Each structure stands twice: as structure tokens, then as C-alpha cells.
Amino acid sequence: MTAVGSIARLRPAATIRLRLTVLYGGLFVAVGVLLLTITYGLFARQLQARGRGVPRPDPPVLSPYANDPGSIRERIVEALAQQRAEALSELLTQSVLALALVSIVATALGWVMAGRVLGPLRDITAAARRLSTHNLDERINLRGPRDELKELADTIDAMLGRLAAAFEAQRRFVANASHELRTPLTVQRAAVDVALARPSLESLLTMARRIRAATRRHEHLIASLLALARSERGIERYEPVDLAAAVRDALAAAAGDIELKGLRLAHALAPTPLSGDPVLLERLAGNLVENAVRHNAEGGWIDVRTEAGPGSVTLHVANSGARVAPEAVAALFEPFRRHAPDRAGGAGQGHGLGLSIVAAITHAHLGRYAARAREEGGLEVSVTLPRGAHTPVPAAKDARAAPTIRA
């Protein structure tokens, strides 16, 4: 360590309060010196003008002392000059003393004022030091006029609220993910234990089928988690995509389940070109269709439509099914949240990630989504996405496609 570094470490740190106080005091002294200089100059000029006003006799009076250097007039002039010098000296001395005294008072007041102004910052610092992952409910709650510091404190309070919600969502996500990942392993272990307890060809085949089903569930969960993580990272590269084509592929993939449940399908798929991530957009369409099929009633219906607007495209998916409370709709877009009992597990049931992945993909594409619980039962979901740059707009005649009804 160098000598300069040692001196710098020994020197006390200049706080903002100290720097503000020095600034206030320095400005006051500078203005005071300027005012003193101007006052001194004006006062000296006034005294000099008065000194030039010594009267001369008119006509001149002849006196035997007229040519004497120590004449009365010269003595008067000298006396006035000395008096002027003494007055200026006294003015300067008194002014400097007054300036020094007032500067000390002004600096002290500046220290107090800086402390009061910076008081909210100390509250903010203290609140930040008290924060941890266990007490994110701490808030500053600064009171006072609506100034810059109040806005800063309110902004930090809002940020703390978002952080608390994010940490809570993360904790809930980790807990639910751990539970969902552990369930297939528990099923596999139980199947193996049963087969080992009574080994036979039938028990081994049953174990193999259960392990295969649990493995498929495990793979589907991991794929969903990866899709959710990828969508939350944002879009790295945009490519031209037709959302209507992605919906057609999703409907084709779900055709077997639609037929098995006897669902009536109505779809009107207008061309909806946009720029985005093809894999994520296919997952968005697939999740919406899968959600509409999975949580539908036997013999129910599904309505799927795509629309192209001037600067955006919209996908509407509606389905019949169990009634959903309006206040519970928003929670369905959170990870691992299921509403009805048929969402809570069992063969062929989901993990509660479908709509949360839809929300994440929509946000990644800077879009918006809306959902509404139907009074008759079921759900209506609309996703609107911006077209993005360099996306061609379809012709007006293709803006809406003729609906297709399928039983």
C-alpha cells in the first residue's frame, strides 16, 4: 500500500451532508465577499467625491499664509484624506468581522438544513439495510410534501412490493415444482416395490406401464418448465410466423382427444402473420387448445378464431366446461394453479403450467391477454400480439375466414 493510499484511508470520508454544508458556506462567503467589495468601492468613491468639495475663496483672499505649504486648506485636505482612510479601514474591518460571524452562522444553518433535507435518505438507507428475503414487507412510507424525495421513496416502496411478489412467486414456484417432480418418482418407486414384493409377469408388466406413464408425465413437466423458463428470458430472434398455421397444427394434434370427448369444434382461422419465436408461438397455440380440450365437458364445444388487425393479431379460444369463479380467473395464469377438482391431477391431467406459459410467452412478445369466465361454464381466453417489424399485412379480403363447424 502506498503512502498516498494510507493517507486516503486515514482521511474521513466526506459525506453528502458535509459537502452540501461546505457548498452552502462557500457560496455564502463568495457572495458576501462580492457584496463587501462592491460596498467598499461605492463608499470609497463617495468619500473621494466629498473630499473634492473643499471650498475655494472667490475671489481669492490674499493672505500672508497663502504660499505657506502648511496652509489651512492643505491641512483640511490632509485631514479629510486621513479621515477617509480611517473610515474605509474601519468599514473594512467591521465588514470582515460581520461577514465571518454571519458565515459561521450560515454554515451552521446549512449543516442543519442539509441534515433535514437528507433525513429521508437516511430512512431509505435504514429500510434497505433491514431488508432480507424474510421481511420484504418492510416499507419506507415517507410522509411529507410531494417532492423529489417523496417520489423516490414511493418508487422504492413500489419496487419493494414487486420484489416481494416476485420472491413469493419464486418460492411458490420452487415448492410446487419440487412437489410435481417428486410425484412421478414416488409413483415409480411404489410400482417397483409392488413388483418386487410379488414378482410375476403381470406385476412386471403393470410396473412397466406405470413407470412409462410416470416417465411421460415427468418429461411433459420438464418440457413445460423449460418452455416457461425460455419464454421468461425474452425473445432473442424474431422470425416470420403465421399464428393461424400454429393453431391448425395444435388442433390437428388434439384431434384424437376432441373426438374421444365428443367435442364440437368451430374455428375461423384468418391469416395472422407476425414476427416472433416460432417454437414459443406454437407452444402458446398448443397450450390454449390443450387447455380448452382438457377442461371441457363430455359432448361440449370449442370455438377457436384468429383475427388480423392493422398492427396486431388476436387469437380467441372459448370452451364449455365447469363453472369458474370470476375472481379465480387471474390465478389460473400463475404456475401450478388449478381451479376445478379435475385440474388437480389424475391421468391425463396437467400440471397447472399451461396458462402460465401462455402468459409468459405473451409478455415475451410484448402482447396482452384477457380471460373471462363464462356464466354457463367454461372459459374464454384472448391473446393479442403485435405484428412486429417487417411483417406484411394480409389483404382485406383475408381479414376474416369463413367459420368451419365440425361435430
Multimerization state: single chain
Order of helices and strands: HHHHHHEHHEEHEEHEEE
Parts with pLDDT < 50 across at least 5 consecutive residues = 341-348, 389-407
Structural class: alpha+beta
Shape: elongated
Portion in helices: 55-70%
Total helix count? 10
* The CATH class of the domain at 238-406: Alpha Beta
Beginning-to-end CA distance, first to last residue: 84 Å
Strand order of the largest sheet: 6-7-5-4-2-8
In short:
Residues 115-168 form the HAMP domain. Keywords: Kinase, Membrane, Phosphoprotein, Transferase, Transmembrane, Transmembrane helix, Two-component regulatory system. The chain has helices spanning 3-10, 16-51, 72-117, 119-130, 148-197, 201-233, 243-253, 255-261, 278-294, 354-364, and strands spanning 239-242, 264-269, 273-276, 301-308, 312-319, 368-373, 379-386, 404-406.
